[in-house]
């Protein structure tokens, strides 16, 4: 067993040649970390070139941050928060060419009052960062919406199923013509029998309706709803937070406002 263990260990140590030093001290032998190497070299095995791209990119970031020094010196004070999708390849900073934004991402840009993480993010953004606009940011071709629309309920992964269920329910109850047409085409087909393309009008419509639905959910289930109903206390200041719904088209770079902007004039 000892020989087997050593045979497994040796390749593992060899994969970190730049980060570990071997030192012999009489009858004992120890391995210590080279802190100077660790500060500049990834401890991930060097055979994983993809992962090491992160550290190469970080070095480029460190070398090119002159333009950030002035705004960073004034502190982080975003006025806009995005709730976006984890499979959108473009960040809000890239899409809108602005640096000072807060963001929170999940599968299919959803908001749920039962999601303590999202609730905390919204509350912190409004109370602590002074955010004035919250944007639900969807995107055409969303893999989360696609999964909810095309998979049979029994086939959804146990971890994903509860999260995608609201979108799937929306797909089956929506009265929007494009969604109904796609739903009719899929009726009676076995799972995977129909491929829904990114440009399918029903798919695109469901992406938009999902954004609208989550704007409403954010208004009704988040801290915004509580603050909106709260009575004014002497000395408190009126604070308005606008909630919007956008959809991004990666093919054209265009952002579409789906027309559901809400304005909860709550009291702090």
Brief summary:
The chain has 268 residues and is an alpha/beta fold.
Overall description:
The structure is a single chain. With 268 residues, the protein is an alpha/beta fold. It folds into two domains: 18-63, no CATH class; 77-257, 3-Layer(aba) Sandwich (Beta-carbonic Anhydrase, Chain A). It is built from eleven helices and seven strands. Strands 4-3-5-6-7 form a five-stranded mixed sheet, covered by helices on one side. Strand 6 (242-248) and strand 7 form a beta hairpin. Helix 7 packs across helix 8 (161-173) and helix 9 (177-186) crosses helix 10. It is globular. The N and C termini lie far apart (66 Å). Mean pLDDT is 77; it is low at 1-42 and 231-236.
Helices and strands, with pairings:
Elements: H1 2-14, E1 20-25, E2 28-33, H2 35-38, H3 49-63, H4 69-73, E3 80-85, H5 92-96, E4 102-106, H6 116-127, E5 133-139, H7 143-150, H8 161-173, H9 177-186, H10 201-221, H11 223-229, E6 242-248, E7 255-257
Parallel strand pairs: 3-4, 3-5, 5-6
Antiparallel strand pairs: 1-2, 6-7
InterPro entries: Carbonic_anhydrase, Carbonic_anhydrase_sf
Binding site for Zn(2+): 85, 87, 139, 142
Function: Reversible hydration of carbon dioxide.
Number of helical elements:
11
Task: Classify the beta-strand content into a percent band.
Answer: 5-15%
- Please tell me the overall pLDDT: 77
Instruction: Provide the helix percentage.
Output: 40-55%
Q: C-alpha Rg, in Å?
A: 25 Å
Number of domains: 2
The helix-and-strand class reads alpha/beta
> CATH-wise, what's the superfamily of the largest domain?
Carbonic anhydrase
Q: In the CATH scheme, what's the topology name of the largest domain?
A: Beta-carbonic Anhydrase, Chain A
Strand arrangement within the widest β-sheet reads: 4-3-5-6-7
Write the CATH architecture name of the largest domain.
3-Layer(aba) Sandwich
> What best-fitting shape do the alpha-carbon axes yield?
globular
Main sheet, how many strands, which sense, barrel? 5 strands, mixed
Strand/helix succession: HEEHHHEHEHEHHHHHEE
């Amino acid at each position: 067993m000892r020989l087997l263990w050593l045979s497994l260990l040796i390749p593992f140590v060899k994969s970190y040649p730049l980060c570990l030093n071997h030192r012999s001290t009489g009858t004992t032998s120890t391995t210590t970390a080279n802190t100077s190497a660790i500060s500049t070299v990834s401890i991930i095995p060097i055979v994983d070139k993809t992962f090491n791209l992160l550290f190469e990119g970080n070095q480029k970031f460190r070398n090119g941050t002159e333009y950030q020094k002035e705004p960073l010196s004034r502190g982080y004070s975003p006025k806009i928060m995005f709730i976006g999708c984890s499979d959108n390849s473009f960040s809000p900073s890239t899409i809108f060419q602005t640096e000072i934004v807060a963001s929170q991402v999940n599968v299919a840009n959803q908001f749920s009052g039962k999601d303590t993480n999202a609730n905390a993010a919204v509350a912190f953004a409004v109370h602590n960062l002074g955010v004035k606009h919250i944007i639900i940011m969807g995107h055409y071709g969303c893999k989360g919406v696609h999964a909810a629309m095309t998979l049979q309920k029994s086939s959804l992964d146990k971890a994903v199923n509860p999260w995608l269920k609201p979108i799937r329910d929306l797909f089956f109850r929506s009265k929007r013509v494009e969604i109904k047409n796609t739903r009719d085409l899929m009726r009676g087909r076995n799972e995977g029998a129909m491929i829904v393309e990114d440009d399918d009008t029903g798919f695109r419509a469901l992406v938009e309706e999902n954004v609208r639905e989550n704007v409403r959910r954010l208004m009704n289930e988040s801290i915004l709803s509580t603050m909106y109903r709260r009575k004014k206390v002497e000395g408190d200041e009126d604070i308005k937070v606008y909630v919007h719904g956008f959809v991004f088209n990666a093919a054209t770079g265009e952002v579409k406002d789906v027309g559901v902007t809400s304005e909860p004039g709550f009291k702090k």
